[in-house]
């Protein structure tokens, strides 16, 4: 696929690219940042010598570059998601940018191509080392890669912007910057927030690998329900959306449900939906699910009560005029370990 086709893929779905960011995507060779290859969707490993290598690289898709068993632990994010986060960051030439999570180094290269001076921090020493090598091979100047815990940032430095490329529960108060763009845990997923002065707005839904250490010390929502752990779920209410909600609109409902009920998380419902909104009960084996068509399923010892709660959340969202997740203004407050506090979402207000 050509670089022109790559930009067209990134723009699909309404992603807006400034001329400067479009030029950065067109100029920075993504293949230089995956010299050892990456995992295909089918689990096989794509190598630079493979005939489809460049075609896969220049698709709007995540490239998993490191796995622990079957669990991905490092990657190059989906380019359209990178684009939305970088645009929300509002980077200007001369800005100093702190990046938490170096990944392959490709995101930092894009930022440097916009004229930013970047310090990228990664907790995995081998990942940091490979990102450093890739940046050198691609002849990208203006990026320093450090090995360390992202919570601490870069010792003694102050930045204009902070961008986070791993899922976190809250922001470090040590990130001293005017704007922070980060995927912050909410209802089992990591919607991206753009934060100024302890108040944020939602940029886009997303799913990220989860950070380690203090950045995930506070868990206001239950963890996603593991496959195979749920009781048998049965129908409680039939469909009420015709046609079913589009994926982004379903995420809007999901986000609102997480605001109004902190038991909201993600579940793979057998034979139904792999990524479904669930109100998980206290045993973590039951509760109720709202599917994209509005139908409600429930299971466990108190299935009827959870089904009623799930239906009420769905109807509350409808009554509020189906607010998109971007309509929420999010307030952040200190939480987590008192010795290493983080700023977590603590209040929500609909702005329209």
From TrEMBL:
<dbReference type="GO" id="GO:0032259">
    <property type="term" value="P:methylation"/>
</dbReference>
<dbReference type="GO" id="GO:0004719">
    <property type="term" value="F:protein-L-isoaspartate (D-aspartate) O-methyltransferase activity"/>
</dbReference>
<comment type="similarity">
    <text>Belongs to the methyltransferase superfamily. L-isoaspartyl/D-aspartyl protein methyltransferase family.</text>
</comment>
<dbReference type="InterPro" id="IPR000682">
    <property type="entry name" value="PCMT"/>
</dbReference>
<protein>
    <recommendedName>
        <fullName>Protein-L-isoaspartate O-methyltransferase</fullName>
        <ecNumber>2.1.1.77</ecNumber>
    </recommendedName>
</protein>
<keyword id="KW-0808">Transferase</keyword>
<keyword id="KW-0949">S-adenosyl-L-methionine</keyword>
<keyword id="KW-0489">Methyltransferase</keyword>
<dbReference type="InterPro" id="IPR029063">
    <property type="entry name" value="SAM-dependent_MTases_sf"/>
</dbReference>
<dbReference type="Pfam" id="PF01135">
    <property type="entry name" value="PCMT"/>
</dbReference>
<keyword id="KW-0963">Cytoplasm</keyword>
<dbReference type="GO" id="GO:0005737">
    <property type="term" value="C:cytoplasm"/>
</dbReference>
């Amino acid at each position: 696929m050509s670089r022109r086709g790559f930009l067209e893929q990134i723009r699909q779905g309404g992603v807006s690219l400034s001329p400067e960011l479009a030029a950065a995507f067109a100029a920075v060779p993504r293949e230089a940042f995956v010299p050892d290859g990456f995992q295909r969707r089918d689990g096989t490993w794509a190598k630079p010598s493979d005939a489809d290598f460049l075609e896969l690289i220049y698709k709007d898709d995540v490239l998993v570059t490191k796995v622990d068993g079957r669990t991905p632990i490092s990657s190059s994010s989906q380019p359209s998601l990178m684009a939305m986060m970088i645009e929300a960051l509002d980077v200007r030439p001369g800005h100093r940018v702190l990046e938490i999570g170096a990944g392959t180094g490709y995101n930092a290269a894009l930022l440097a191509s916009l004229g930013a001076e970047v310090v990228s921090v990664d907790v995995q020493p081998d990942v940091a080392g490979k990102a450093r090598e890739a940046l050198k091979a691609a002849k990208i100047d203006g990026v320093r890669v450090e090995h360390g815990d992202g919570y601490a940032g870069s010792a003694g430095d102050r930045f204009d912007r902070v961008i986070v490329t791993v899922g976190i529960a809250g922001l470090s108060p040590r990130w001293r910057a005017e704007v922070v763009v980060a995927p912050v845990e909410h209802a089992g997923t990591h919607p991206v927030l753009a934060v100024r002065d302890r108040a944020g707005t939602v940029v886009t839904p997303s799913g990220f690998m989860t950070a380690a250490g203090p950045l995930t010390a506070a868990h206001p929502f239950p963890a996603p329900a593991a496959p195979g752990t749920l009781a048998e779920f049965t129908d409680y209410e039939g469909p009420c959306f015709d046609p079913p909600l589009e994926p982004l609109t379903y995420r809007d409902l999901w986000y609102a449900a997480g605001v109004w009920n902190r038991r909201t998380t993600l579940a793979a419902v057998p034979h139904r939906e792999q990524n479904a909104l669930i109100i998980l009960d206290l045993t973590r084996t039951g509760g109720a699910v709202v599917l994209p068509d509005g139908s409600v399923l429930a299971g466990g010892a108190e299935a009827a009560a959870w089904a009623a709660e799930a239906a009420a959340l769905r109807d509350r969202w409808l009554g509020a005029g189906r607010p998109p997740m971007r309509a929420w203004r999010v307030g952040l407050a200190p939480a987590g370990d008192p010795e290493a506090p983080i700023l977590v979402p603590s209040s929500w207000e609909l702005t329209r």
